[in-house]
UniProtKB/TrEMBL annotation:
Pfam families from the UniProt entry: Fer4, NIR_SIR, NIR_SIR_ferr
Organism: Clostridium algifaecis
Domain 4Fe-4S ferredoxin-type: 157-185, 186-215
Keywords from the UniProt entry: 4Fe-4S, Heme, Iron, Iron-sulfur, Metal-binding, Oxidoreductase
Organism lineage string: Bacteria, Bacillati, Bacillota, Clostridia, Eubacteriales
PROSITE patterns registered for this protein in UniProt: 4FE4S_FER_2 (PS51379), NIR_SIR (PS00365)
Family: Belongs to the nitrite and sulfite reductase 4Fe-4S domain family.
Protein origin, superkingdom: Bacteria
Full protein name: Dissimilatory sulfite reductase (Desulfoviridin) alpha/beta subunit
InterPro entries: 4Fe4S_Fe-S-bd, NiRdtase/SiRdtase_haem-b_fer, Nit/Sulf_reduc_fer-like_dom_sf, NO2/SO3_Rdtase_4Fe4S_dom, NO2/SO3_Rdtase_4Fe4S_prot, NO2/SO3_Rdtase_4Fe4S_sf, NO2/SO3_Rdtase_FeS/sirohaem_BS
PANTHER family, A to Z: ANAEROBIC SULFITE REDUCTASE SUBUNIT C (PTHR11493:SF54), SULFITE REDUCTASE [NADPH] SUBUNIT BETA-RELATED (PTHR11493)
């Protein structure tokens, strides 16, 4: 049986003790949810050599290889390093970052993969008052559930309508899943309250009657899921794509400065008030 101090040491390296208290599952890290074919082949080799020949996917798009014996752990670490594989992802720090496929998805409004990779390079594994999760999605479909992360980034496209160009083809109406558009006297009427800023109307319009007024991302703070659920609060504006990383920088600086040990962002917001938290962030951005 693995002793407590050894468990803690190995957990910090991404080796999580299994229920039998004798084996680990080692967590290999993706880049924005992606592995190269070579990386997958190398993980397979480790699973075959040191595990039981299979692996599993985690909810944060990483790969775990179970049934690693304690006496083999150092060998796995050395071989993983030689093969260029990263492992880790636990503790009071920035957890593995998650992104949807918005870069190649036809619904994507932002380059989710590039944003996630840049944030990963800057922040993955950085110490924080408590665990901190970052998620990036390209649109309102929210496939990677951005607003239940401590920091969530959601691609948005705000439409602007030019009724003089509208030819009444109804393509935008047919593609609006929120029913925010209707045709009145052969012109589009827009219900902003129903719109989720997905940008579908902009993408399908062939007459240049709908264009992007704003395009970028809405950023949420304070989301969490699990033992305590909380939907993140929006910072209340659309940030341009090239502003996203710098906004996250300000959020991280503020969280590290104001958070007490053991507090996730949601707990900081509960303690000081979400209005103050958001106002302070926006003031630092401005």
């Amino acid at each position: 049986m693995v002793n407590i101090s050894r468990q803690k040491e190995m957990k910090s390296l991404g080796f999580l003790l299994q229920n039998d208290k004798e084996h680990y599952s080692v967590r290999f890290l993706s880049k924005a949810g992606n592995f190269t074919v070579e990386e997958l082949n190398n993980i397979n080799k480790i699973a075959e050599k040191y595990g039981q020949g299979y692996l599993g996917l985690t909810t944060r798009l990483q790969i775990e290889v179970p049934w690693i014996k304690d006496e083999d752990a150092e060998k796995v670490i050395q071989e993983a390093k030689a093969l260029g594989l990263r492992h880790g992802g636990t503790g009071q720090k920035i957890r593995p970052l998650v992104a949807c496929k918005g870069t190649v998805c036809l619904h994507g409004n932002i380059d989710t993969q590039a944003i996630c990779r840049e944030l990963d390079r800057k922040y993955f594994g950085a110490d924080t008052p408590h665990k901190c999760k970052i998620g990036v999605v390209g649109c309102a479909n929210n496939c990677a559930k951005a607003n239940i992360n401590d920091i969530g980034i959601m691609g948005r496209c705000v439409p602007k309508f030019n009724s003089d160009n509208c030819v009444g083809c109804r393509l935008c109406i047919k593609n609006c899943r929120q029913k925010a558009l209707e045709l009145v006297n052969n012109k589009i009427v827009y219900n902003e309250n129903l719109c989720v800023k997905c940008g579908e109307c902009v993408r399908v319009c062939r007459a240049n009657a709908v264009i992007a007024k704003e395009k970028g991302a809405e950023i949420f703070v304070g989301g969490r899921f699990g033992r305590g659920m909380r939907i993140g609060d929006s910072l209340g504006k659309i940030f341009k794509e090239d502003e996203i990383v710098s906004v996250v920088d300000k959020i991280m600086e503020y969280y590290n400065r104001t958070g007490n040990k053991g507090e996730r962002i949601s707990a900081v917001m509960d303690r000081i008030g979400k209005s103050k938290f958001i106002a302070d962030i926006l003031n630092e951005i401005d």
